[in-house]
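Reopening this ticket.

The earlier resolution said the output was attached, but the attachment link was broken on my side. Pasting everything inline this time so it's all in one place.
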Amino acid sequence: MIFISNSISLNDSEVEINAIRAQGAGGQNVNKVSSAIHLRFDIRASSLSNVIKQRLLDSKDSRITKEGVLIIKAQQFRTQERNRIDALERLQSFILQATHVQKTRKPTKPSKSAKRKRVDEKTQRGKTKALRGKVDF
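Inline output:
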């Protein structure tokens, strides 16, 4: 079981994890050791609630394919086990972001005193700049 939060958990069978060879510099082991992790999570076929599924699918994340599969590639660390933990942590944080509902923004207007103060500061600044002009004798 993969625990996301107190109320959300995933079955191990819902997440497909494959070891692949990491990209980039790696010395002598780069072509021999498969230390990177390729994690695939099918959002539509998961056991998550429909609300969370829809939020995940509606997010503008480039890691989600057209078929609704989230793909995470973890290759930051040297060991396969640490990359596996990193990929699962990234999956967990991605799902947790979908559970939080953002507050709707209430449009506000500046107060009369704030408007007056802004205009007063502008006129004072204009007077200061006017004093910088040429001097007539």
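Reporter confirms the inline version is readable. The longest helix spans residues 80-99. The chain has a mean pLDDT of 82.
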